[in-house]
Amino acid sequence: MIVLVAVTLGLYWPTVGYDFVAVDDPDFVTENPYVRQGLTPESVKWAFVETHASNWLPFTWLSLMADRGSGALDPAPYHRTNVLLHALNAALVFACAAALSGRWWASLLLAALFALHPLRVESVAWIAERKDVLSSAFWFACTLSYALYARTRRQVWYVASLVLFAGGLLSKAMLVTLPFTLLLLDAWPLRRPLAWKARWREKIPFFALSVAVSVITFMAQRGGGAVSGLEKVDLLARLANAIVAYERYLTMTVWPVDLSYLYLHPAQMEAGGTWSLSFVVGAILAVGVMTTSCVNLARRGMSAPLVGWLWYLGTLVPVIGIVQVGSQSVADRYTYIPQLGLWIFLVAAVVALAERGRVQRAIAITLSVLAVSASAVGTYAQVPVWRDSRALFERAVAQNGRNFQALNGLGTVCAQAGEQAAAMRYLQQAIEVKPSLPAAHTNLGNVFYLQRNLDRAEHHYRQALRYDPTSDDAHVNLLSIALTRGDMASAEQHAHAAIAANPMNWRGHLGLARVQGARGEWKLAREAAEAASRLRPDNDRVKAMLEEARRQSQ
Q1: Predicted TM-score of the model (pTM)
Q2: SS3 assignment for 434-492
Q3: What's the pLDDT tens digit per position in 296-348?
Q4: Contact at 8 Å (CB) between 140 and 93?
Q5: Which of 370, 386, 402 is where one domain is finished?
Q6: How many Å apart are CA 214 and CA 216, to the nearest integer?
Q7: What's 530's domain CATH number?
Q8: How many domains would you assign to the chain?
Q9: Alpha-carbon dihedral angle through residues 499, 504, 506, 512, given to the nearest 10 degrees
Q10: Between the CA of residue 485 and those of 270, 372, 448, 475, what are the distances in Å?
């Protein structure tokens, strides 16, 4: 196990030198004033009582706050914690498997396949996916405690597993399926003698927590606009994507190539888009064959394949797309826990092969070494994709030239690097693919604004508002144009709109302070500047505005 942890750390440690990326990291760290200020009474209260980025993740927020050091905002501590948590998870998977099965070498193989597979890279190398590695640490610790409870019948382990489960739910809601996996483990490998009714009754507290957090999460995601309505993705398209996703994750497990941070849902590419009938039929056949095979093996006394397969099917339910959250059809990070079911299936097959004789044992060992080695090589190649935003978006565009989100991201990166021609090219391509993409219009407007072409900039900002009236970024940019033109009435209107859409938009508060200062309303300007300072105390423009407002209001 020590070797496994060392290899895991070695493979992922280069990420400690990587940058933040412009996907969710701003919401989770760089533009989040509560995370930026670290662990304070105010930020701890916010973590528990507020939803943000369409999620309620108190323990994840606290974890990120704990990584906030003094001085400049540094991505290294956040990356380091992610890597350490993943290495801890590798050790916990081994401990859980060993406690449940008593097979040490099979447990080591299971943990190695889990830890070193390329599909893990997204969860580990992406700072915003702290929720994955943190919640999974609670998941595995809970499972280990439950295994000890099942073996010893000591209530302290039952209580510990319930507390750890609650901690996991406070890190990420995807743990709602954990009680289902405990029922599977009751059947195999624990083979508990309890009647099914008693097993279900024992899990009532777990299921109660799952239901409560599911409701909170759904409300948070719907309130944050992350849940797509049936008018955007109809029920048939969701069902088609669900069955295709099961097959795609299987394929990605066996052949993890052409990985991307975003695989767009067909409905995002065109109105009413869905998977072709051939894809859906093929996926149904693949899932059907696997299910039938596992059931037949279980009838012959081999329970492990069926337990693994049901683990895979069941733990994917929250993210399979029946409730469509976001623009993705599948995601590498969604396999962090579910893929363990496939590894249970595979390891059971390897064990069965190894027990047939000396030759078969040699074949099983050879196949195991090859599988683990291939996973490690794939991960080694995938890790650098996450070194910064440019690398991430370039890889996604290379995989799919019509990925409008990646085109928009790449255009934004080019604009920030002063490559205006390239920025305009990518952003215009994004708009050609998806004319209703507000972010691309806002970012293209920013390019025109830098060129002092205010009319073209204003056009694109208003296009952004046309498709998303709550876009605080578009409002603050129109605020800047209005200030440049001396139109204080319009500037004030956009400042209030930006703050209403996102109270944490410090530029909205700063703009409002500038408007009120220009009118001589220095007391009000001071209040607005103080609000901006609470959100971004280290910004030079905010400091200057606050100092002037305090001086003028005395």
Answers
A1: 0.94
A2: CCCCHHHHHHHHHHHHHCCCHHHHHHHHHHHHHHCCCCHHHHHHHHHHHHHHCCHHHHH
A3: 999 998 999 999 999 999 999 999 877 766 788 999 999 999 999 999 999 99
A4: yes
A5: 386
A6: 6
A7: 1.25.40.10
A8: 2
A9: 20
A10: 39, 62, 16, 15
Q: Is residue 421 part of a domain?
A: no
Q: Are residues 341 and 220 in the same domain?
A: yes
Q: Is 272 exposed, middle or buried (0-12, 13-18, 19+ CB in 10 A)?
A: exposed
Between CA 214 and CA 228 the distance in angstroms is: 17
Based on the fold, state whether residues 368 and 509 are members of the same structural domain. no
Separation of alpha carbons 205 and 533, rounded Å: 44
- Per DSSP, the three-state class of 227 is strand
* DSSP SS3 for 21: coil
Strand partners, 171: none
Q: What angle do CA 181, 336, 331 make, to 5 degrees?
A: 120
Q: What pLDDT does 19 receive?
A: 97
Q: How many residues make up the chain in this entry?
A: 554
Residue 482, C-beta contacts closer than 8 angstroms, at least 6 positions apart? 488, 490, 491, 494
Residues 25 and 133: their CA atoms lie apart, in Å, by 15
Of 63-72, 107-116, 336-345, which gets the smallest average pLDDT?
Answer: 63-72
271 occurs within a structural domain:
yes
| pLDDT confidence band for 55 (50 / 70 / 90) | confident
Angle at 60 between CA 54 and CA 64, to 5 degrees: 110
Q: How far apart are CA 160 and CA 152, in angstroms?
A: 13
Collapsed DSSP state (helix, strand, coil) of residue 287: helix
3-class DSSP state for residue 31? Answer: coil
Residue 322 lies in a domain: yes
Q: Which two tokens stand for residue 236?
A: 């048939």
Domain hosting 522: range is: 491-554
Query: What are 300's two structure tokens?
Result: 């012959």
Rounded to the nearest integer, the mean pLDDT of the chain is 94
The Cα–Cα gap between 334 and 120 comes to 9
The pairing of strands 263-264 and 328-330 is antiparallel
The CA angle 69-75-79, to the nearest 5 degrees, is: 105
Contacts 24+ apart (CB under 8 A), 95-101: 95/140, 95/144, 96/140, 96/143, 96/144, 96/147, 99/144, 99/147, 99/148, 99/151, 100/147, 100/185, 100/189, 100/190, 101/189
pLDDT of residue 554: 79
- At 70 the pLDDT is 53
Structure tokens at 551: 């001086």
For residues 297 and 289, what is the distance between their CA atoms, to the nearest angstrom?
12
Residue 120 domain-assigned (yes or no): yes
Specify which residues 264 forms β-bridges with: 328
Measure the CA dihedral 216/220/223/226, to 10°.
-130
Q: Of the residues 369, 386, 403, which one is the last residue of a structural domain?
A: 386
On whether the CB atoms of residues 404 and 434 are closer than 8 A, the answer is: yes
